[in-house]
Amino acid sequence: MKDSLHLHVELRPSRLAAVAIRLGAAATDALALSLPLDPWVIAAALVAIGLVAVRGLRRCAGRDVPAGIEVGLDRRLTVTPRGGRVREGSILDDSYVGERLTTIVWRPDNARWYEPARTIVILKDSLGADDFRRLRVILRYGQPDTDGLASGREAG
User: Fold this and answer.
1) Exposed, middle or buried, 141 (CB in 10 Å: 0-12/13-18/19+)?
2) Distance between CA atoms of 28 and 48, rounded to whole angstroms?
3) Taking 60 as the threshold, does the pLDDT of residue 145 lie above it?
4) Where are the alpha helices (DSSP H) in 35-128?
5) pLDDT tens track for 73-132
6) Quick one: how far is CA 56 from the chain centroid?
C-alpha cells in the first residue's frame, strides 16, 4: 500500500526554461546597454546579468536539475540529484501547482533554521504529460502525515 502513495518521476532539463532564460537575459542586456550610464556600470550590470542567467540555466535546464524525485501523498519528498547524494524532506505550502508550471518548495530533513527552503522548477516539457498530471494531483491534494500512518510509522 505504501508504494501506491508515492510517485517517482524522472525529470529532464527543460528546453522552454532555457529559451525563456536566454531571451530574458538578452532583453535585460539590451536594456542595460541602452541606459545612459558609465561604461564600468554597464559592464558590471552585464556581468551580473550573465551570472544570474547561468545560475538559472543550471537550475532549470542544466546539471542542477534533479535526476528524479519521489513525492508522496504525505507531502514527503525524496530528491535524487545527478551525481549527488539523495536528500529527503518535506514539501512546504509555498509550492505552486499550475497547468504549465509547478514549483516545489521544500525543506530538507535536518536542515538548520537559517537555511533557506529549496525549490524545484518543473515545466511542462520536463515530464511526460501523464507523469506531470499525476505529480500535480499529488501536490495539490496531498496532506502532511501528522499521525505517521502513511509513512509506515506507528502513531503515538
Assistant:
1) exposed
2) 11
3) yes
4) 39-61
5) 999 999 998 877 899 999 999 999 999 999 999 999 988 888 899 999 999 999 999 999
6) 11
146 burial (CB, 10 Å; 0-12 / 13-18 / 19+) is exposed
Q: How many CB atoms lie within 10 A of CB 40?
A: 8
Q: What count of other Cβ atoms lies within 10 Å of the Cβ of residue 24?
A: 14
3-state SS assignment for residue 70: strand
- The answer to pTM > 0.85 is no
Phi, psi of 100 (to 5 degrees): -110, -20
Q: What is the DSSP string of 113-128?
A: TTSPPEEEEEEGGGS-
